[in-house]
Design brief:
Elements (H helix, E strand, L loop, with lengths): L2 E18 L5 E20 L3 E6 L12 H13 L5 E7 L9 H16 L6 H11 L3 H6 L2 E5 L4 E4 L6 E7 L6 H14 L11 H9 L2 H7 L1 E2 L2 H7 L3 H10 L4 E4 L6 E5 L2 H14 L4 E7 L5 E2 L2
Helix pairs in contact: 1-2, 1-3, 2-3, 5-8, 6-7
Function: Catalyzes the phosphorylation of the position 2 hydroxy group of 4-diphosphocytidyl-2C-methyl-D-erythritol.
Enzyme class: transferase
Pfam family, one: GHMP_kinases_N
């Protein structure tokens, strides 16, 4: 017997970063949006192990250091049992790309192990266990479009009308999320910028609720973007090309280095992806839509 769970990537439509907290984290205002790039995690009986397959998986840890293995151990501890599960990850979400691929795999592992072990775990409990594993893990379970507060783990669903069309420009190599946050703090100190408490953008929430892609494109923001550009200056060229070729809006996704561009519709997304590919500003261009559901067991 085995269980396979499909889980989406995310893009941050707004990422507001507050002051550094005493526990080493920042208070965030995160507007998460799940998009149609998916990993699949398969759980089967066996000693705890993780294997990984897919394109561009360099740097993804196999074995017990993978976040999915940590999620399996956390659920097993909660249930008072052994984490006797073999996990196989088929990756399509970019690695270290700011789209929460590792967190998505952890969320999928939680759901897959619960099903494999026939454990009746309430969804709210799964969200709590997910938050213990990582800040972005709960949203991969939650899906759709949501406001995340605290470290991003306190989630509230947001109204989102219609479907939005995206082009993602994937870069060579990844960026370390802790390194990007540290660079954000360094830049603020260097320019004597005091971090203010972030608040959700009324313009962005209104654009989501109305399904207006032009308004949404104008409202996209990411406080980590200057830090990502500082660590990877070539991303400035990618963002400029997106604007030049008609994206309704663009930003670095999360901690980067993936750049996300909003298109008016499917045809516009295809045209924009082709133009960016011709401009040679990214390793790979992929299109996707959102919002999509969170992690779910495949039949």
């Amino acid at each position: 017997m085995s269980v396979t769970v499909k889980v989406p990537a995310k893009v941050n439509l707004q990422l507001g970063v507050g002051p550094l907290r005493d526990d080493g984290y920042h208070d965030l205002v995160n507007v998460f949006h799940a998009v149609s790039l998916f990993d699949e995690v398969t759980a089967a009986p066996g000693p705890l192990a993780v294997t990984v397959a897919g394109a561009s998986i360099e740097g993804v840890p196999a074995g017990p250091d993978n976040l999915a293995a940590r999620a399996a151990r956390r659920l097993a501890d909660h249930l008072g049992r052994e984490a006797d599960v073999s996990l196989h990850i088929d990756k399509a979400i970019p690695v270290a790309g700011g789209m929460a691929g590792g967190s998505a795999d952890a969320a999928a592992a939680l759901l897959a192990c619960a099903a494999l072990w026939e454990a009746d775990v309430p969804f709210e409990t799964l969200l709590e266990l997910a938050a213990d594993v990582g800040s972005d893990v709960p949203f991969a379970l939650f899906g759709g479009t949501a406001l995340g507060l605290g470290r991003g783990e306190r989630l509230t669903a947001l109204p989102c009308a219609g479907e939005f069309h995206w082009v993602f420009a994937l870069a060579d190599g990844g960026l370390s999320t802790p390194a990007v946050f540290a660079e954000c703090d360094r830049l603020r100190a260097a320019f004597e910028q005091e971090a203010s408490w972030p608040h959700e953008s009324p313009d962005l929430l209104a654009a989501l609720a109305s399904g207006d892609p032009k308004a949404l494109g104008a409202a996209l923001t990411n406080d980590l973007q200057p830090a990502a550009l500082s660590l990877r200056p070539s991303l400035a060229r990618t963002l400029a090309a997106g604007r030049e070729y008609g994206a309704l809006g663009g930003l670095v996704s999360g901690s980067g280095p993936t750049c996300a561009f909003l298109a008016a519709d499917a045809a516009h997304a295809a045209e924009l992806a082709a133009a960016l590919d011709e401009a040679d500003v990214a390793r790979t261009l992929v299109t996707a839509t959102g919002p999509v559901p969170g992690a779910h067991v495949l039949p």
